[in-house]
Each structure stands twice: as structure tokens, then as C-alpha cells.
């Protein structure tokens, strides 16, 4: 047990903080902080700067750009990045397909994909979910049939985040429809989004944004060399990948930033003749949220320091479950601070006296309902906690 | 105490429900709310023909002389299909103020056309620097010859760009006065925009804008504003109940039809119990909303009783709306956060209603000031 950061970790934190706040352009960080849409170019610019400094994929194996950091340092890295409103390295690249290729791909695939993935020269999207395969992912039906040197893919994916920006998709496909267990007949295929037969339909979300898509496959020919790992073992890779996805998903730093913003705004809003921040029930509410967040952060640190074997700890479900709830609570707090101003949601700058932060609150609140649904819904996380941890 | 509606009231409900359910399914609503003014003028006229837009006004003012029970029935049906027509905003709030404060001449001149659907009346009250106050400070009124002029900014004003006539609150000597401003008045600028729930709001900028005093005297109208806001709050509670009911039935239906793991989601008790909790929230808020309407309609209710009943309705609506709105999305999974599916729009509207006139925490703070003034809360007055 030791409370304080060691001098080395303290220096590490300062180094991260300085880097993130000086090397990533202010305008990109302002966009993230203001919950504006971050452009593809901004994501790419930020990730390339991080990658050049060895800060994009520190959790990868050292030979592919990873760093020999302690779990605590990784936590500090992520936290400081979120506090500084730096767009995080694209999760599909850095947390999902990258680690899978590093662990299960062949040498040729590693050389072909990993450097480009770390540098966001390839923008990946995740083709897992299907209309009838959400929580029950293993029931997916998109089929790949071997034809000579190719796989021929037919079917449909959905909820494909930022598919409109993507160069490549990593896709779970059914390669053995006769397998006894449905988990057994699945493989992981990767292919470019501009392959003939791939089409995209954007899905509008409640905030008016278009961040997800349906993706359709019609006789899409994929060379056999684009199968990652072994045929029919895709489910194992998917589980590995989803476990990694969950670790970063607590987003403690991002929630801290939202709470800090909320306090600043509450100091500017007048309620009953005094600043809203002086309202005792507002202070109680913020205090409770801060305490929950502290407990979550400490749990993240505790869990992280337990899982040095690199395997995701089942307790990462706790982080996903409560982390998503606290992100949502922070967005709700912001709506309530904006109060009646939140109704000016889609006003243009020159058509309103309502500050931008207040206008964005409800669209953001509605959009954030997603965080308890994706990455394994919170019901799925409870099922994991009950089953894997409690043995129920 | 009697929670039941009579035959005439049932007939009104059936008629309004029929009209609105024909007018709106989720797709039609999406189409209508895409373009200005964010609602369907035809539906507005049909509501007028049915007498709905004049429900609470006296017959001599061009209204139907009905009570808030009838208003509640209509608001519930509005909420049930998320009809984007500004019923509560125009009829209950703006119309209610004119009915209470206006001279006989003003009542006839403003409420008749409102009831007929030929003139949309809204209350421009919120100011960017004020938070759910019954007073105005950002817009000020100045005497000018026989009349008045107004200057300042009102925002956000629901349907503020589309309105034909605005009732505007403004600071006068000794308090907050009420004024009538025509849509074509000089020095009036309106910037309309879309709110997240598909309705429209606006920034209304007044710059030496000619205005007519509402009522005889330029006295403080804060109490009248407070009462009108309270009645609108109670009507919103019913609109919210209608919305929550659809959100719940849509969710239950979805649990029965959506299959995962080879079975309908309704096989998972983890989900059905949560739907059951939503039902509990719904029935509790329905009860308070109906009770608050009875308080509003009871001839011997004091203004304090009406305000307190509205705050209790508001607190419960806020809690239930958040609970049901969030769970409805969560139990749907991904489809719940899309604009293409209906359920998230219910959550969006419930969130709007929660923040238009004061949210639950705000109501709780007001009610908290009186906890030691009563040993317990009396539901049934003698
Ligand atoms: C904004 C957004 C972005 C996404 N991005 C991607 C992406 O890039 N790539 C990708 O592949 N997928 C993505 N997803 C999909 C996401 O992973 C799925 O939405 C999620 O797996 C849930 O599936 P579903 O939406 O079909 O809901 P369903 O599985 O139909 O679930 C509906 C409800 O039932 C609950 N439920 C289901 N089964 C059980 C059970 N056995 N016990 C208790 N409760 C249960 C769920 O938790 C949920 O509350 C995204 C989703 C969203 C909303």
C-alpha cells in the first residue's frame, strides 16, 4: 500500500500533461471539450502526433510500438489524455484490431497492418453487430464461403461506428454453418471498405448526428490471406477484443472534465438571485457524483494493478457498468445546469444568446444513452459479474 | 374525490385521440417536424374546429367554457403521439394569461382567433439570464405616449418565430408587467431554430418595439404569471404521462417481439421487472397529475394550493420522465438511440418538458421550504 505517486510516476505524469497540452493543437482539443463533431482530419492529425511520440499504442507489444509501461503509467497516460481533451487513439485501431493482429495475426499481417494501424493510415471499423445479433453476437449470420483463393461474403452488419470514414473493416463472419456450437463456426476477416459489393447506409441518431451505419455485403470477394488467425476461431479473438474494449471504457478522465465544466457553468448561471453552484442541493449532487467517480477511479487503479498478465480482469465489467452510468450522470447534470437554455439545442451561433455549451447539453445527454448499450450492454456486464465472478 | 371522467369528457378524448392518431405515426411526425414551423398547420386547424383550442376559455371570450380536466385529456393525447402542435404553450399558458389578465376587449380580440386557429399566441417569458423565474428583468417596458415600448431579449420562446401574437413579460416600475406584441411590430426580430425534441423555439429581440399593455393597469403581474405557469406545468404533466405511457407500451411490445439468444427478450426477468418498475412510475405520476388538475379546477383552491400542487406534479413528472425515458431506450438497445425509431423521441420530449418551466430539483427546493409547515401532506381536502 502506498498513496503517493513515486517521483518517477510524478515525472511521467508531468511529461504526459505537458505533451498533451502543448503538442496537440488547441483547436482540436477545443472541439473535443465543447462536444463538437471531431473531423476525420483532426482524429488523424492527433493520432499521428501521438504515434510519432510513441503515445498512440503503448499497450501493444514493444516491437510494434508498445511501451514497457506499468499499468499505473498506462492509467495516467489515458487519464491525462482525457483531461486534456485530446481525441483518443481510434479505439477500433488501438484497442481492438491492433492487439488482435499483434496476438493472433501472422508475421505478414503484422507487418502489413500494425504500423499503418498505429499511425491511423488505415482507419478501421468494427463489423460485429447485425440486426439480429446484438447482445447475442454469436448468432451472427453474415456468411463467408470459400471460392478458390477468396472468401465470398454476403450479409449485413449494423451500428458500424464511423464506417463512413473507414478504410478497412474487421468483420466476424460465419465460415462453418454446420458447427455444433454457433460460437465455433465464426472467423475474423478484414477487407477494404471500397471492395466491390460493400455498401453503406448512414443511421441518424437522436442528436441528429450520423456516427453509425448499416453495412451491406453482396458477393464481396476477400482474398484468403485476409483471414486473421485460424479459421473458425474468430469467437476467441472477439472475446479477447471485447475484453480490451471494456478496460478503456470507464472514461474517468472524460467524466472528470465534464464535472469540472459543469461546475464552471453552474457558477455562471443565476438561480433565485445567486449562482447555481451555491445551491445546496446542486452541491450535494455534484459531491455524490464526484465521490462515485473517485471510487471508480480507485477501482480502475486497483483492477489494473491486478491484471499484469495482460488478460482483462472480469472486474473490468465493473468499470464498464459504473463508468457508463457516471458518464451519463455527468451529461444529465449538464442538462440540468443549462435548464431552460437547453431548449436552444440546434440554434446557429448568430441566432441565439444561449452559449454553445448549454445548447449541446441535451443532444449530448441523448447521445450518451449509447454508452450503457454498446461495448457489451450493462445487462451483459451484470450477467458477466453474476456468472463469472459470483458463480451464479 | 373522483378520478373518473364523464361521458362527454370521454367523447372529447376519443375525438382528439382519433384526430391525432390519424395525423401522427412516428414517420409522419418526423416528416412534419423537419420543416418549419415544426407542426402541421392543418392539424392545428382541425383541433380548432373541434373546439380544442378554446377549451378553457369562457364562452363570451370565444371559448368552450370547459375546465382543466378537459385540458388534461387533450394534453395526454398530445403526449401519447408526441403531437408537435403547441397546445399547452399557446392555449394553456399564453391563452390562460390573457384570460386571467386581459380586458374584455383583449380577451375577445385574442382568444377568439386563438380558439379558431387563425392566430397563434405564445408567451415570451424566458430570458437567457433568468432561470424559471416568474419575473422579467432582461426585457424592460417604457411608456411612450399612450402606449408602451419594449426592449430586451426573450429566449428560448417556444414557437416564437411562428407566433402571430406574443404575450411578453417585461420589467415595469414595481415588478413584472404583461404586454401584447404583434408579430409584425416594428423593432421585433425573431430568430427561430429547432429544439432537440423537434419543436421550434426562438430568440425574440425587442428594440423599442411598440406593445399594448395586457389588462387595465401597469401593475405587477408576477402572481398571475406564476399561476399561469403552474397550470401549464400541470398540463405538461399530462402531456408527459401520455408520452410515458407510449414509451412503456412501445417498450413492452418490443420486449415481446425482439429475439436474442433464441427467445423473446420478455423471457429475461431482468428486463421485465424493469418494465414493471416503469409501470409503477407511470401510475404514480398519473395519479399526481390528475390530483393536481382537480386542485386547479376546484373553485375554492387558493393560489398557494395550486402552486404547491403544480410543484408536486412537476417533481413527480421529472422523476418518472427520467426513469421511464432512460429505461425505454436502454431496454431497446441500440435501436433506442436512433432518430429513425420512435422511442428515443419520447425521451427527448420528456427531457424538454422537464426543462421548459422548471425541473424536479427546482420544484423540490420550493416544496422543501414548507416541510415544517404541515405534519403530513393532505391529499383529500375537507
Ligand atoms: C452508438 C452505437 C455504436 C455502436 N458501434 C458499434 C460498432 O462500431 N460495431 C459493432 O459491431 N457494434 C456497434 N454497436 C452495437 C452494440 O454493440 C449493440 O447495440 C449491443 O451489442 C446491443 O445489441 P442490440 O442493440 O441489438 O440490443 P439487444 O441485444 O436487442 O438488447 C436489447 C436490450 O435487451 C438487453 N438484453 C439482451 N439480452 C439480454 C439477456 N440475456 N439478459 C438481460 N438483458 C438482455 C440488452 O442489454 C438491451 O438492454 C454500437 C451501438 C450503438 C448504440
What are the secondary-structure elements of chain B, in order, as H or E?
A: HHHHHHEEEEEEEHEEHHHH
What share of the residues of chain A lie within helices? 40-55%
- Rg from alpha-carbon coordinates of chain A: 22 Å
Largest sheet of chain A: 4 strands, mixed
Structural class of chain B: alpha+beta
CATH fold-level topology of the largest domain in chain A: Butyryl-CoA Dehydrogenase, subunit A, domain 3
Just give the CATH class of the largest domain in chain B.
Answer: Mainly Alpha
Strand segment count of chain A: 10
- The H-level CATH homologous superfamily of the largest domain in chain A, spelled out, is Butyryl-CoA Dehydrogenase, subunit A, domain 3
Neighbour order of strands in the largest sheet of chain A: 1-4-5-8
Largest interface: A-B, 58 and 51 residues
What kind of oligomer do you see? heterodimer
CATH superfamily of the largest domain in chain B: Butyryl-CoA Dehydrogenase, subunit A, domain 3
The biggest sheet of chain B amounts to: 7 strands, mixed
Shape of chain B: globular
Mean pLDDT of chain A: 94
Characterize the overall form of chain A. Answer: globular
Secondary structure tally: strands of chain B:
9
Taken together, the total number of domains of chain B comes to 3
The end-to-end distance of chain B, rounded to whole angstroms, is: 10 Å
Cofactor (chain A): FAD
Domain Acyl-CoA dehydrogenase/oxidase C-terminal (chain A): 232-388
Domain Acyl-CoA dehydrogenase/oxidase N-terminal (chain A): 6-119
Family (chain A): Belongs to the acyl-CoA dehydrogenase family.
Commentary on this structure:
The complex is a heterodimer of chains A (392) and B (382). Chain A is of the alpha+beta class. Chain A folds into three domains: 83 residues, no CATH class; 109 residues, Butyryl-CoA Dehydrogenase, subunit A, domain 2 (Beta Barrel), CATH 2.40.110; 139 residues, Butyryl-CoA Dehydrogenase, subunit A, domain 3 (Up-down Bundle). Chain A has twelve helices and ten strands. In chain A, strands 1-4-5-8 form a four-stranded mixed β-sheet. Chain A has a four-stranded antiparallel β-sheet with strand order 2-3-7-6, with no helix packed on it. A two-stranded antiparallel ribbon of chain A has the order 9-10. Chain A is globular and about 75 Å long. The two termini of chain A are 32 Å apart. The N and C termini of chain B lie close together (10 Å). In chain B, the strands form two sheets. In chain B, strands 1, 2, 3, 4, 5, 6 and 7 form a seven-stranded mixed β-sheet that branches. Chain B has a two-stranded antiparallel ribbon with strand order 8-9. In chain B, α7 runs antiparallel to α8. In chain B, a hairpin with a 5-residue loop joins β6 and β7. Chain B folds into three domains: 113 residues, Orthogonal Bundle (Butyryl-Coa Dehydrogenase, subunit A, domain 1), CATH 1.10.540; 92 residues, Butyryl-CoA Dehydrogenase, subunit A, domain 2 (Beta Barrel); 152 residues, Butyryl-CoA Dehydrogenase, subunit A, domain 3 (Up-down Bundle). Helix content of chain B is 51%, strand content 16%. Chain B is built from eleven helices and nine strands. The radius of gyration of chain B is 21 Å and the shape is globular. Chain B is an alpha+beta fold and 382 residues long. The longest helix of chain B has 36 residues. The chains are: A alpha+beta (392), B alpha+beta (382). The complex binds flavin-adenine dinucleotide (FAD). Flavin-adenine dinucleotide (FAD) sits at the interface of chains A and B. Chain B: InterPro entries: Acyl-CoA_Oxase/DH_mid-dom_sf (IPR046373), AcylCo_DH-like_C (IPR036250), AcylCo_DH/oxidase_C (IPR009075), AcylCoA_DH/ox_N (IPR013786), AcylCoA_DH/ox_N_sf (IPR037069), AcylCoA_DH/oxidase_NM_dom_sf (IPR009100).
Amino acid at each position: 500500500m502506498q498513496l503517493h505517486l513515486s517521483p518517477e510516476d510524478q515525472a511521467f505524469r508531468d511529461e504526459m500533461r505537458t505533451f498533451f497540452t502543448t503538442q496537440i493543437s488547441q483547436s482540436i482539443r477545443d472541439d473535443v471539450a465543447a462536444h463538437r463533431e471531431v473531423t476525420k482530419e483532426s482524429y488523424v492529425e492527433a493520432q499521428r502526433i501521438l504515434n510519432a511520440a510513441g503515445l498512440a499504442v503503448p499497450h501493444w507489444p514493444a516491437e510494434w510500438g508498445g511501451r514497457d509501461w506499468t499499468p499505473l503509467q498506462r492509467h495516467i497516460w489515458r487519464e491525462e489524455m482525457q483531461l486534456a481533451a485530446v481525441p483518443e487513439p481510434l479505439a477500433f485501431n488501438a484497442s481492438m484490431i491492433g492487439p488482435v493482429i499483434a496476438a493472433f495475426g501472422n508475421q505478414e499481417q503484422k507487418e502489413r497492418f500494425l504500423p499503418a494501424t498505429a499511425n491511423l493510415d488505415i482507419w478501421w471499423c468494427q463489423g460485429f453487430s447485425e440486426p439480429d445479433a446484438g447482445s447475442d453476437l454469436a448468432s451472427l449470420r453474415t456468411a463467408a464461403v470459400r471460392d478458390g483463393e477468396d472468401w465470398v461474403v454476403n450479409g449485413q452488419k449494423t451500428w458500424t461506428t464511423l464506417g463512413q470514414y473507414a478504410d478497412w473493416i474487421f468483420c466476424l463472419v460465419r465460415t462453418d454453418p454446420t458447427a455444433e456450437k454457433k460460437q465455433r463456426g465464426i472467423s475474423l476477416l478484414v477487407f477494404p471498405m471500397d471492395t466491390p459489393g460493400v455498401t453503406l447506409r448512414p443511421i441518424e441518431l437522436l442528436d441528429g448526428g450520423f456516427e453509425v451505419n448499416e453495412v451491406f455485403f453482396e458477393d464481396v470477394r476477400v482474398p484468403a490471406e485476409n483471414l486473421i488467425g485460424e479459421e473458425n476461431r474468430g469467437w476467441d479473438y472477439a472475446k479477447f477484443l471485447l475484453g480490451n474494449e471494456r478496460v478503456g471504457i470507464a472514461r474517468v478522465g472524460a467524466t472528470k472534465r465534464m464535472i469540472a465544466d459543469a461546475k464552471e457553468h453552474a457558477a455562471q448561471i443565476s438561480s433565485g438571485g445567486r449562482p447555481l453552484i451555491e445551491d445546496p442541493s446542486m452541491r450535494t449532487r455534484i459531491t455524490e457524483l464526484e465521490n462515485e467517480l473517485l471510487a471508480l477511479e480507485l477501482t480502475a487503479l486497483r483492477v489494473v494493478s491486478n491484471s499484469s498478465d495482460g488478460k482483462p480482469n472480469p472486474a473490468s465489467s465493473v468499470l464498464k457498468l459504473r463508468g457508463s452510468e457516471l458518464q451519463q450522470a455527468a451529461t444529465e447534470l449538464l442538462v440540468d445546469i443549462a435548464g431552460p437554455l437547453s431548449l436552444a439545442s440546434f440554434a446557429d451561433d448568430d441566432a441565439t444568446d444561449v452559449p454553445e455549451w448549454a445548447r449541446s447539453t441535451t443532444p449530448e445527454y441523448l447521445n450518451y444513452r449509447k454508452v450503457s448499450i454498446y461495448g457489451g450492454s450493462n445487462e451483459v456486464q451484470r450477467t458477466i459479474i453474476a456468472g463469472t465472478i459470483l458463480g451464479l | 374525490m373522483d378520478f373518473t371522467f364523464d361521458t362527454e369528457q370521454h367523447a372529447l378524448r376519443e375525438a382528439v385521440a382519433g384526430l391525432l392518431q390519424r395525423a401522427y405515426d412516428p414517420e409522419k411526425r418526423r416528416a412534419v417536424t423537419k420543416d418549419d414551423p415544426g407542426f402541421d398547420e392543418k392539424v392545428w386547424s382541425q383541433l380548432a374546429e373541434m373546439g380544442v383550442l378554446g377549451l378553457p376559455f369562457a364562452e363570451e371570450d370565444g371559448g368552450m367554457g370547459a375546465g382543466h380536466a378537459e385540458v388534461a385529456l387533450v394534453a395526454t393525447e398530445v403526449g401519447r403521439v408526441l403531437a408537435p402542435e403547441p397546445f399547452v404553450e399557446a392555449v394553456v399558458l399564453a391563452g390562460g394569461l390573457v384570460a386571467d389578465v386581459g380586458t374584455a376587449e383583449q380577451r375577445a380580440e385574442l382568444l377568439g382567433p386563438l380558439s379558431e386557429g387563425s392566430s397563434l399566441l405564445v408567451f415570451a417569458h424566458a430570458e437567457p439570464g433568468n432561470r424559471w423565474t416568474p419575473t422579467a428583468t432582461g426585457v424592460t417596458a417604457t411608456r411612450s405616449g399612450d402606449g408602451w415600448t419594449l426592449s430586451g431579449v426573450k429566449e428560448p420562446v417556444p414557437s416564437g418565430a411562428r407566433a402571430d401574437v406574443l404575450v411578453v413579460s417585461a420589467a415595469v416600475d414595481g415588478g413584472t408587467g404583461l404586454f401584447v406584441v404583434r408579430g409584425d411590430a416594428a423593432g421585433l426580430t425573431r430568430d427561430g431554430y429547432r429544439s432537440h425534441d423537434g419543436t421550434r423555439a426562438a430568440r425574440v429581440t425587442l428594440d423599442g418595439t411598440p406593445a399594448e399593455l395586457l389588462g387595465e393597469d401597469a401593475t405587477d403581474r408576477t402572481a398571475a404569471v406564476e399561476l399561469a405557469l403552474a397550470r401549464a406545468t400541470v398540463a405538461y404533466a399530462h402531456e408527459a404521462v401520455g408520452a410515458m405511457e407510449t414509451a412503456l407500451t412501445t417498450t413492452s411490445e418490443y420486449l415481446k417481439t425482439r429475439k436474442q439468444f433464441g427467445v423473446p427478450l420478455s423471457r429475461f426477468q431482468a428486463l421485465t421487472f424493469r418494465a414493471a418498475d416503469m409501470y409503477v412510475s407511470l401510475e404514480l405520476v398519473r395519479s399526481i397529475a390528475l390530483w393536481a388538475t382537480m386542485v386547479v379546477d376546484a373553485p375554492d383552491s387558493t393560489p398557494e394550493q395550486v402552486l404547491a400542487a403544480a410543484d408536486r406534479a412537476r417533481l413527480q413528472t421529472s422523476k418518472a420522465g427520467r426513469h421511464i425515458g432512460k429505461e425505454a431506450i436502454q431496454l431497446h438497445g441500440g435501436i433506442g438511440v436512433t432518430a429513425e425509431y420512435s422511442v428515443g423521441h419520447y425521451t427527448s420530449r420528456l427531457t424538454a418538458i422537464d426543462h421548459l418551466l422548471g425541473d424536479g430539483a427546482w420544484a423540490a427546493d420550493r416544496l422543501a421550504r414548507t416541510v415544517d409547515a404541515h405534519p403530513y401532506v393532505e391529499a383529500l381536502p375537507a
